[in-house]
Amino acid sequence: MANITTPENPGFPEVYLIEENDDVLGGEGGTANRQAKEIVERTAFLKKAIEKLIADLGGDLNSATAVISSLAQKANLASPVFTGTPIVPSKSTAASSSHPTHIATEAQVAFKANIASPNFSGTPTIDSNPIAAVSLASGVYETNYPVGSYILIIGSSASNGVVTRNQSISPGIGSGNPPMGYTLTGTEALTGTWRSCGISAISNGITLARRVA
Fold this sequence. Notes:
Elements: H1 31-56, H2 61-71, H3 106-109, E1 134-135, E2 140-141, E3 150-154, E4 162-163, E5 168-169, E6 172-173, E7 182-183, E8 188-189, E9 194-196, E10 200-201, E11 206-211
Antiparallel strand pairs: 1-2, 3-11, 4-10, 5-9, 6-7, 6-8, 9-11
């Protein structure tokens, strides 16, 4: 008794439908064996494909199953939907932030003021951290900020009546005990070169300033 031979290089052939007028013949080329031969070839093709996949994943079936299960939990490259708290790599300059690697949504960013000509609403306040801005509670004011730092100038005044964007200014600590904040003509000047980032009415305005050098 002979068996159906598995091809050495199997393909994936169509499975023949036996017609009503076909002669039902056995043997190697017989019509009665044609469907079985095609199914054997298809099975051999699938078997080789699965064996190659398992080999590519380390050769262990259990490990391959675990990898496939893990891949199913990954986000798509196109328009991924994240859950939990996604994080991204951060620069060292963000290390002091309370959430330096969190991703901000477009809606969250929309609530931030522009760097150029920012428009503040409500009651802007100065950070209570003396390294970042000033400490109003203790009356201690920082005078030497790193280049790139921002401060708020309160009650600004200038000879031309307005503070214009990118104007060179010389902010300092205001008068009073404790001091009222930073002003354009303070009693103790801040170190470095400063420029205005926005436009403000000087009588009682608040101007955002940045140290550029």
